[in-house]
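Hi U.,

Before I forget, here's the chain from the pilot set. I'm dumping it here mostly so it's searchable later in email.
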Amino acid sequence: MNARNDLLWDNLELRHPLPTDGYALNQLVAASPPLDTNSVYCNLLQCQHFADTSVAALLNGQLVGFISAYCPPNDSETLFVWQVVVSEAMRGSGLAKRMLTWLVDQPGTEKAQRLTTSITPDNHASWALFESFARDCGAIPVKSMMFDRDRHFGGEHDDEYLLQIAPLPNRPDKSMAYHLDDLRAGLRCSNRRWLD
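Structure:
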């Protein structure tokens, strides 16, 4: 890593979000098309209700990255990543993967055996991020249909594919057995396939 990157990471703070980050998050997402925007109120709730399963990245006190994530109701073993946003100036720096890695190592996500997220077919940056994260984890990414453009979105939004990554690092040995059981069940579904 060069001196410029070392200086960058020395000045970067990763932490769980605070309610006071909600407005800055709203502005960061708004400045990052084609991400779906939410109301400021929604972002405030993300920063308050899902703080333990989300991460804010600040550089010199300014919000430059954020991952919104949560454990779905009745499924504490899954961490669903809702949205990843990185400021334009920080794109290509590796910040998104650094945030993901930090997040799965936090106490609020330690029960999660797998990470899931939804991605549209043409979001190449997200596919690359999560496939790279899976490789770093030594995990097997599995893709399946989540929401269909016509059936779920009335033709007004692209398909959303569910990507599952498991097992997550630093989990008990049983996580691999759980993942293999899930893969066996998934292979019986025709809409699931291995990723290249």
